[in-house]
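Forwarding the complex inputs:
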Amino acid sequence: MAGLKDKYCIVGVGETEYSKHSGRSTRAMAVEAVKNAMADAGLKASDVDGMMSYQSGDSTPANWVAPDLGIRLNFYMDVFGGGSSTEALVGLAMGAIESGMCNTVAIFRSMNGYSDFRIGGTGVRAAQPVRGLDLAQMPFGMRSAGQSFAPTFMRHMYEYGTTSEQVARVRVAHSTHASQNPKALLKDRVTAADVLGSRWITKPLHLLDCCVETDNATCIIVTSAERARDLKQKPAYVMGVAGRVNKARTDFHWAAGPISRVAGYYAKDIVFGQAGIKPEDVDITGSYDAFTFTTMLQLEEYGFCKKGEGGQYVSSGIIELGGKRPNNTSGGHLCEGYTHGMSMVIENVRQLRGRVDDYCPGWAEGKHSYDYSPGKCRQVKDARITMNLGWAMPPTGSALILHR
Amino acid sequence: MANVEYRGMNLVIPENDSEWREHFKLARGHKLMLRACKTCGLLRYPPSHGCPWCAALGWEWKEVSGKGHIYSYEVVHHAIQPGFKEWTPYAVVLVELDEQRGKPTADEALRIIANLVTPDGKPEAEAKVAIGKRVRVVFQDLAPDFALPHFTLTEEPPIGRVWSLPS
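Prediction (whole assembly, two chains):
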């Protein structure tokens, strides 16, 4: 994989408030998130000429959002999809610029993921007829993301001896990180006992193994390294990207085992190959946490530990702030808020800048205490390389490696 | 065109749904029929137009025994679909059929998602659900041309280790 290492970068990031009651349209939220990312980058409306978004019939297209900010587009595209789209769209934005179609691309995701279209299948989605491939699962009461993934998680426990207590430590770590994040929806630290004591959703998932559905919009802006030179922020350079990599049967994951294997098995060679690094070179991971198990499965598949040892890895302290390789330092989807992946890329960009928005009074100038006790700092010291592991479902995933 | 109301869901199969229009109709005859490739002979599920292994487009329906074992499962306690709330806790099982196990590669098999039910069609007791246990297909008739295949436990010896989530 030749790739375009270091030729493109993320120069701006922004988001709206995370809430359960936005009280406004996905268009209004998208406009605010894009505007915040433009201000972060130091870009005017005339500097942005590309826009992309991802959605599943629950958002506003890019060409309705751009005019609200006075942006005239040379390129736009809205793709169908949820998790694992962010990383893929970074790669597509690079391609759009490389091909000469445009110069600077704003990528957004906007959703009333709690108050309107809940991913769990309640809200607007519940009334939709069941047809096509959905007939293979939904008539049997397997509709939500958790219900669709649970047999994968269960099989991993069977094959490798992974325990509920081990994966609960993902929630513990991410709640610790969220307690340092003023934006996070759930700021209270929890223990493994809290996770195991929370009610069952679908076995093996407890309530606290699941993320928090959220209303929000998020945005990142991609441009060339050359264009980035006179912009406001220190760029986060793209070392490697893999987009929507699939296992053999994405239509019906169960047909091609082992079902405890996830798409990272294939994505890792693409993304590490482009970047020319190994897992041990990564300082911070952003392994998608729609569920605690999701984080664990991807970390082991990408080679941060041996296959089957994900349970030990996530319960060892490595993934916590102050550990060797923290994961989702914002609190992620489990605690900060559910964004379909964009927030985890935003967090890693801020980490690479050394300007994570924690409770340190001087965070905006890069002054951090590195005191990881509650309500203090969440900046990782001297973070040089980050990696995002995006998840759509067990057989589909994306990855993005950035460096400062 | 099938248009079936089931547990608050509207199950719709338009006439041009060439994947599904026959599947549930065949199930109504209480036969579990899968598509077999006319070129390489391999069976496949869900019903698809092309062969996942040799890409040939010709296929024919073949009846399978409907016997297999629980390969993985979940037990839903918090139902998303309102019509399933009265059924909780209910087991969703991933059944690996006896035919074509480990073919064409070691990790592949014919696997089907369904509910684990008692012989009279109620959700099986949670304590009885486990990976490795043997099952057979049973049919729930929903309309003159539509039945859902489910599975029920049998007394046959298990396949491999019997395992369930520690309580």
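Residues 74 and 102 of chain A are 6 Å apart (CA to CA).
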